[in-house]
Amino acid sequence: MYIKSLDLCNYRNISKAEIEFDPGLNIIYGKNAQGKTNILEAVYMCSTGRSHRSCVTDKDIIAFSEDEAHIMLRLGLPYTDKIDIHLDGGKKKTINVNGMPIQKLGDLFGVLNVVFFGPQDLQLIQSGPSERRRFMDIEICQINNIYYYNLKKYYKILKQRNNLLKDLQKSKKQYELLDIYDCQLSECGVKLIKIRRSFIEGLNLFACRIHKKISSGAEELCIEYKNDVSEKDFISKLKKNHERDIVTGSTSHGVHKDDVVFFINGKNTRLFGSQGQQRSACISTKLAEIELIRSERGENPVFLLDDVLSELDKQRQQSLINAIGDMQTIITCTGIEDSIKDISSKSKIFNIKKGKIL
Q1: Which CATH architecture is the domain 121-298 placed in?
Q2: Separation of alpha carbons 68 and 82, rounded Å
Q3: Can you give the pTM of this predicted structure?
């Protein structure tokens, strides 16, 4: 799988751009705030329907003083798929695949598979559980679009249950509804637990092997899924905490409390790992994502590296560069630095300045 071209109109600071990518390595360089990351963000949106940045609305993406923005991405052979995304500040975005509008966002997952790696991902281990759940959910959706629908359903039920809990603080008239929401939340949550566990187990197999190579055999990485409740005690924990949940107005247990834990040589990396170990574990995890998507989908994803090489030492830079192989990769950087000089000769290079491709 590779991207043939990307056309942008009124996308953040890019008024108009038509970019033809190489099936192999592509380097986009320019000073900060020129639009490099915006290009990767647009590619990511064509894969997931949303920005890789958290707390970003569609309106934020539309160029200042403009009413709408447009993204069009074409895949190269053997695929001929075309993805169109239209953003209107006052309306819901529309997404077309091969000229046909998709009715549900889940239908977009799997058309274009990407792995995005930016400086913020180096904080995956140090960040809070919500970021690790987000990482897990997005990656699973790319290889299992049924998961997306279950996840969406779960959070809809969770919102309804939390609203009921707040109402029960004032009146217990609808108390019996709580048992109904317990059953619905548990039924949906059990499905998510099974898929999450399977995903992390698969990710761990690849990450362990990759990390051992990165650390020259000195370290063993283990990634574990830490589910807040098990399949067996899901509904019993919900019922047991009815009164507590009513007091707080929120659901105290469920998959929305899950986490992912990283261990190096048996020690919790977030608590006891050095910054270098944490970064190596993040790199191993990202490279494991590639391997997992490759094994599940039977093809390479597109690898997006957003100015991350400058954040790493030479050994870790080399680990990422060695992993590229024949996979289409789009790298952003501030200049053709030492870290990519060796590979720049066999890449297609783009310079961007003030939102324009030079």
Answers
A1: Up-down Bundle (1.20)
A2: 20
A3: 0.92
